[in-house]
Amino acid sequence: MSKKFLFVFVIALAFLAAAVLWLLSAVPADNPVLADFKPQWAIVIVAGVCAVAFIFRAFFEKSALVPMKKLYVIIGAGLIVVCVFMVISIYAWQTDKIIAPIIGVIAALALVLMVLASGGKKWDQADNKNVGYKNYHQRKAEEEEQRKKEENK
What span, in angstroms and rounded, lies between the C-alpha atoms of 46 and 6? Predict the structure, then answer.
């Protein structure tokens, strides 16, 4: 199973779970848990699962594209902000003093995760900056030396 398929499949399952819970909350039942289910919980479920999926994708993708890894972490952090705001709206907490610190903590955590996911690289490193890189002339000189050694044998 490919990682891209797994990523999309997990997000689709999150949407399915949220939709089923929402449907079950609309059906009259004696279950107090489902009776208190609010539509905001569906958003919390989908945003939370998608955030975790994007952050895991940033860490475990084999691509060397550092900006894409950072973008996945930023998207994940944005979805975590949405998730937190939905939880705050569900419980109707006093939001005037808590919103800025929450955004600050999530932004700082996103910066740490971006550095961890990208290995601290700002951009993809060119091949000629790697240790032991040989340019065209150096490779040709080595090939010539190798050919002369083979001819002398």
Answer: 16
Residue type, 73: V
One-letter identity of residue 133: Y
44: nearest Cα among 95, 3, 100, 84: 84
| Cα gap 68→7, rounded to integer Å | 15
Q: Is 80 exposed, middle or buried (0-12, 13-18, 19+ CB in 10 A)?
A: buried
List per-block mean pLDDT (blocks of 10 residues) for the chain, which spans 153 residues. 75 84 71 68 88 88 77 89 85 71 79 74 58 79 88 80
Q: Is the pTM of this model over 0.70?
A: no
> Is the Cβ–Cβ distance between 121 and 62 less than 8 Å?
no
Residue with tokens 């490193």: 125
Question: In angstroms, how far is the first alpha carbon of the chain from the final one?
Answer: 51
Structural domain spans, the chain: 3-125
Runs of H (alpha helix) within 2-98: 3-26, 32-35, 39-60, 66-91
